[in-house]
Design goal:
The protein is mostly helical and 207 residues long. 61% of the residues lie in helices and 0% in strands. The structure holds fe (ii) ion. Fe (ii) ion binds next to α2.
């Protein structure tokens, strides 16, 4: 007798073999999880990936680091997918799904902690669960945070200030997301400074 259970092809996608490129597989996974159910989120993610590629230019990173950063940009918001949402806190749900499907901890950590997620996690009771994933401050994390903070909800390129204003307008100034976004914007500005300094240590000045 034929099963009536809907098939989820994305869930059948394995993580790349160890040492294999992450970014192309991450793009496919994000596409499968987002493009039908959440087309605006998919547009946002495409912009984040494009921004990350631009930000990575001239940074002192090995090829594996560049691959990891682009992969993180593709999958950072997969936790919004109704296919995999469990707690409703998207950084945690995305990281949990990636861990379950065999993706490397360096990637799951970037997803879990992207854009100062620990702040909102503290308000929502997810601090311990989030801490199970490694947080790795550094250039790769900075690229992801700045790429995310300069991508609008519909896929447009925005400034950090425009992104902040948009979130406050959509959620309302008193909402937890809006209050956290002020800190997220500050963290993104600091990350931008670090990226500039890494590209040109003589001109970058402030670390
Ligand atoms: Fe995002």
């Amino acid at each position: 007798m034929a099963s009536t259970t809907p098939q989820q092809p994305s869930l059948a996608r394995p993580a790349p073999a160890a040492g294999g490129a992450l970014a192309p597989a991450a793009e496919r996974a994000a596409h499968d999880l987002l493009h039908l159910d959440l087309p605006r989120r998919w547009a946002h993610v495409q912009r984040v990936a494009a921004n990350a590629v631009e930000l990575l230019e001239d940074l002192p990173l090995e090829a594996a680091g560049v691959d990891l950063a682009v992969a993180a940009a593709w999958v950072h918001d997969i936790g919004y997918s109704p296919t995999l949402a469990v707690t409703g806190f998207h950084p945690l749900d995305g990281a949990t799904w990636l861990t379950t499907h065999g993706w490397p901890s360096a990637l799951t950590g970037l997803v879990a902690h992207h854009s100062l997620a620990r702040l909102e996690a503290g308000h929502r009771g997810h601090t311990t669960a989030l801490a199970a994933h490694p947080d790795s401050p550094g250039l790769i994390r900075d690229v992801l945070w700045v790429a995310d903070a300069t991508s609008g909800p519909g896929g447009q390129r925005v400034t950090i200030e425009e992104r902040l204003a948009d979130v406050v307008a959509r959620y309302g100034p008193e909402d937890l997301v809006s209050r956290c976004m002020h800190a997220v914007a500050g963290a993104a500005r600091t990350a931008e400074v670090r990226l500039r300094a890494a590209r040109d240590p003589l001109k970058g000045g402030v670390m």
